[in-house]
Amino acid sequence: xxxxxxxxxxxxxxxxxxxxxxxxxxxxxxxxxxxxxxxxxxxxxxxxxxxxxxxxxxxxxxxxxxxxxxxxxxxxxxxxxxx
Length: 83
Description:
Structural class: mainly alpha
Strand content: under 5%
Distance between the termini: 106 Å
Radius of gyration: 34 Å
Order of helices and strands: HH
Shape: rod-shaped
Largest sheet: none
Number of domains: 1
């Protein structure tokens, strides 16, 4: 009888461990899916940031060229003199 009780107890422990493993794997699978979704969102956000940075760089260069037109002329004169 003691052997039967020991075997039942071991079987119950094994079943409990498999249930815990199953639950852990299900949580892991869900979290990996969420991570993949977040990576996709990050990719979209990074692309938007790239476009925004390019737009701001173009605006900055345009404004800088309009505010400092004499700087370009001075740079051109320096290049002509160095030749």
